[in-house]
Design goal:
The strands form four sheets. Strands 4, 17, 18, 19, 20, 21, 22, 23 and 24 form a nine-stranded mixed sheet that branches. Strand 1 and strand 2 form a beta hairpin. The protein is of the alpha/beta class and 463 residues long. Helix content is 28%, strand content 25%. It is built from twelve helices and 24 strands. It binds ligand LLP. Ligand LLP binds next to helix 10 and helix 11. GO terms for molecular function: diaminopimelate decarboxylase activity.
């Protein structure tokens, strides 16, 4: 396993052996609905269409590389999460996956709440009209300025991440004459990624306050003592790209145990628990994510059962899916620039973007799918590696992919499931211009985040 592999990558703990790649798919032209957004198909000329528009038209109008976001799919997923959890629970979309003002408006219209983790995300949310009480503010090192802005705006909750922050938020709220609703983020000693989880993970990470050693109980004690704070609950987030609900089960059990301890010590039942985000999506046809109603049912059952066992009223549950909402709704469209066959190895297909628009492959060994989308082809499958145009050999977009052997410069290829953590983690490496995000719906396409220009770069460079 690569030393750079990250928990969010599927190769964690050698789930897939080094050098693994799937056998070629039976039909290279087929667009697996598991990995493509809901309105994607092919037109009579074999070109991929999304929201009724073909990629040839889209590339012509918006250029490449570009992210195309299927607005219908995004809204449908929001509604599926909201419906699955119902009125007794709250769904907070995790803005770190991808945030823009259009997205904030869609969330607002579809009845979702929003988790932000920086001043920048907070101002995006507020400027697009998200009611402050529907915002949760996260982060392990929020600045005093960020805390003040959040309290002044009246955010629905601040998730406290350290002992210092308990005092800091209380002090700022009090100085503003307010009582801030807060949750305490605890680390439950569970670490979950993709297909496995570890129930006794070390607390060796920067987030939250450990349940172990009575730390979290002490945090509750301190928060309850401070006038500037209204402690409404406990928060736990156990990882990312998770398929197995067992990690949530252990986490919920440990959080409920803390609620019982709080009741025994202070005589109060904290009314809320937040189980975080982290639900997995399909990046390749081999991934099998769960539907929101399965997740909601499983989480509700776990919490209800644990609370009954502890003799507690069931608290209001909230969750924070980011990737599971936006991830599957977008693809990145690239134009092929060069095709370099390496005898006996594979063919390198270079595109006009790369690690600046998708760092996940380089950073986490993440796996993606890819398809030729400007036409269909009957050529043989060819083992390929889709690479970018950056000055770095690790600049890989799709490590192992089968593309038709007649792929050629000028063809358009698309990588699905790039809605989450691609634009939001994009960089200007090599002075690349970050691609636009174009929302497509009912035959109309609209730029929601425009492409950067060289003037944008030069404006920051004050000479
Ligand atoms: N809530 C909290 C407190 C989080 O820290 C996160 C993600 C989420 C919710 C949303 O998790 P999601 O449902 O999107 O998995 N850059 C990495 C993922 C980092 C996730 C950080 N926290 C990646 O590209 O895989």
């Amino acid at each position: 396993m690569s030393r750079s592999a990250h928990p969010a990558g599927p190769r964690h703990a050698d789930v897939l052996p080094e050098g693994h790649y799937s056998a070629p798919p039976a039909d290279l032209n087929r667009l697996d609905p598991k990995v493509w957004s809901r309105t994607v198909g092919r037109d009579e000329r074999g070109r991929l269409t999304v929201g009724g528009l073909s990629v040839a038209e889209l590339a012509e109008e918006f250029g490449t590389p570009a992210y195309f976001l299927d607005e219908d799919d995004f809204r449908t997923r929001c509604r599926a999460w909201a419906d699955a959890f119902g009125s007794d629970a709250d769904v907070f979309y995790a803005g770190k996956a991808f945030l823009s003002r259009a997205v904030v408006r869609w969330l607002k219209e579809e009845g979702l709440n929003l988790d932000v983790c920086s001043g920048g995300e907070l101002s995006t949310a507020l400027s697009a009209g998200m009611p402050a009480e529907r915002i949760a503010f996260h982060g392990n090192n929020k600045s005093e300025d960020e805390i003040r802005r959040a309290v002044e705006a009246g955010v629905g909750r601040i998730v406290l991440d350290s002992f210092q922050e308990i005092v800091r938020v209380a002090h700022i709220a009090q100085s503003l004459g307010k009582r801030q609703r807060v949750q305490i983020r605890v680390t439950v000693g569970v670490e979950a990624h993709t297909h496995e989880f570890i129930a006794t993970a070390h607390e060796d990470q920067k987030f939250g306050i450990a349940l172990a050693g009575g730390q979290a109980a002490e945090a509750v004690r301190r928060a309850l003592r401070l006038d500037g704070l209204e402690l409404i609950g406990i928060h736990s987030h156990i990882g990312s790209q998770i398929f197995d609900m067992a990690g949530f089960e252990v986490s919920a059990r440990r959080v409920v145990q803390l609620l019982a301890e709080v009741r025994d010590e202070h005589g109060i039942e904290l009314p809320e628990i937040d189980l975080g985000g982290g639900l997995g999506i399909a990046y390749t046809s081999e991934d099998d994510p769960r539907e929101p109603h399965h997740i909601a049912k499983a989480l509700n059952e776990i919490v209800t059962r644990e609370c009954e066992a502890a003799g507690l009223r069931t608290p209001r549950i909230s969750v924070e899916p980011g990737r599971a909402i936006v991830g599957p709704t977008a693809f990145t469209l690239y134009e092929v620039g060069t095709v370099k066959p390496l005898e006996g190895l594979r063919t390198y297909v270079s595109v006009d973007g790369g690690m600046s628009d998708n760092i996940r492959t380089a950073l986490y060994d993440a796996e993606y799918s890819v398809a030729l989308v400007s036409r269909t082809s009957d050529a043989e499958p060819m083992l390929s590696r889709v690479v970018g145009k950056h000055c770095e050999s690790g600049d890989i977009v799709v490590r192992d992919a089968f593309l038709p052997a007649d792929i050629a410069p000028g063809d358009l290829i698309a990588v699905p499931a790039t809605g989450a953590y691609c634009r939001s983690m994009a960089s200007n490496y090599n002075h690349a211009l970050r691609p636009p995000v174009v929302a497509v719906r009912d035959g109309e396409a609209r730029v929601i985040v425009r492409r950067e220009t060289e003037e944008d770069l030069l404006r920051l460079d004050v000479g």
